[in-house]
Design brief:
There is one protein chain. The two termini are about 15 Å apart. The protein folds into two domains: about 1-120, Probable inorganic polyphosphate/atp-NAD kinase, domain 1 (Rossmann fold, 3-Layer(aba) Sandwich); about 130-300, Tumour Suppressor Smad4 (Sandwich), CATH 2.60.200.40. It is globular and about 55 Å long. Helices cover about 25% and strands about 40% of the residues. The chain has helices at about 15-20, 20-30, 45-55, 65-80, 110-120, 155-160, 170-180, 240-245; strands at about 1-5, 35-40, 60-65, 90-95, 125-135, 140-145, 150, 185-195, 195-210, 230-235, 260-265, 270-280, 285-305. The longest helix has 16 residues, at about 65-80. β3 (about 60-65), α4 (about 65-80) and β4 (about 90-95) form a beta-alpha-beta unit. It is an alpha+beta fold. Strands 5, 6, 7, 8, 9, 10, 11, 12 and 13 form a nine-stranded antiparallel beta sheet that branches. The protein has a four-stranded parallel beta sheet with strand order 2-1-3-4, with helices on both faces. α3 (about 45-55) packs across α4 and α6 (about 155-160) crosses α7 (about 170-180).
């Protein structure tokens, strides 16, 4: 494959940028026909990925975390929609969360040599994507995600985790979630999914393609990235003592057995509220004042290099 490698030097609290020389050496040893580019601003990977597809690259590899992967995926899909070409997604996970790769056999965050070996293999797998439209401030935003979408407190955690520059990985998400729980109040939400409706005050409504979000929380344990379905996890308003007792269950997925949690699988999920709520896709906040979110699965929409 003719590969464009897009490095986000800010990923992993700057750890990805510090490994640039190591990355270049590994790519050279791997015998790849590649071009290495570096992002310089948030959203930059989307533009670079779209340009790479237009230039005839058959694989665009994201070096960073879930946010970088998300940007590259949106760039690939934008180029495809414009009729400029198509490309597979490669992943070299060096990010803070790296939740998507947790469902891919053999992938490990930070394992640069292993990721390059898989990239060189060129073996791909078709995966689903989620297509979203978000109403915010009178405007309509359309994007895709590869791992998951959070609406509510889980999206607010993504806001807070960016402030914890002294922490990384799961620890950053745990601290941010505990801080957010102290101030966040559940919103009245309506969630519609494949002909059903849920009307409750909710802490959050998460839509998963993968299984993990927030750096390691097993929010949608039944999620499969190639089943043509999205997984819903909606957590109802809780008393303080319930928050304390139930919080650990988010790590092993046993929260889905609780009566205060609604789960489902669906092809389309719509989340709305009279109150504004934050929304994040693949760990990156895309709105803080949303009132309506529609999510639809795109089955087998993207080829991912898995080795």
């Amino acid at each position: 494959m003719k590969t464009c490698v897009i490095l986000n030097p800010a990923a992993g609290r700057g750890a990805a940028g510090q490994r640039r020389d190591e990355l270049s050496a590994a790519l050279q040893r791997g015998g790849l026909a590649y071009t290495l580019l570096t992002t310089h601003a948030p959203g930059g990977a989307t533009e670079l990925a779209a340009q790479a597809v237009e230039r005839g690259f058959t694989c665009v590899a994201a070096v960073g975390g879930d946010g970088t992967i998300n940007e590259v995926v949106n760039g690939i899909m934008a180029a495809r929609a414009a009729g400029a070409g198509d490309a597979a997604l490669g992943i070299i996970p060096l990010g803070t969360g790296s939740d998507f790769v947790k469902v891919l056999a053999g992938f490990e965050s930070g394992d640069l040599p292993g990721a390059v070996r898989r990239l060189a293999s060129g073996v791909t797998r078709l995966v689903d994507l989620g297509a979203i439209s978000v109403e915010r401030g009178g405007m309509l935003l359309r994007r895709v995600f590869i791992n998951g979408l959070g609406a509510g407190i889980d999206a607010q955690v993504a806001v807070e985790v960016q402030k914890l520059t002294w922490l990384s990985g799961l620890a950053a998400y745990i601290v941010a979630s505990l801080q957010t729980l102290a101030t966040y109040r559940p919103r009245p939400m309506t969630v519609r999914y494949d002909g059903k409706e849920l009307h409750r005050r909710l802490y959050f409504a998460t839509v998963g393609n993968g299984r993990f979000q927030g750096g390691g929380f097993l929010l949608t344990p039944s999620g499969q990235i190639d089943d043509g379905l999205l997984d819903l996890c909606a957590v109802h308003s809780l008393r303080p003592d319930q928050v304390i007792r139930y919080y650990p269950k988010l790590f092993d997925g046993s929260h889905v057995e609780l009566p205060v949690v609604t789960t489902a699988q669906a092809r389309t999920i719509v989340i709305s509220s009279p109150a504004t709520f934050p929304v994040a896709t693949d760990g990156e906040v895309i709105a803080t004042d949303a009132r309506h979110v529609e999510v639809t699965v795109l089955p087998a929409a993207l080829r991912v290099v898995v080795g």
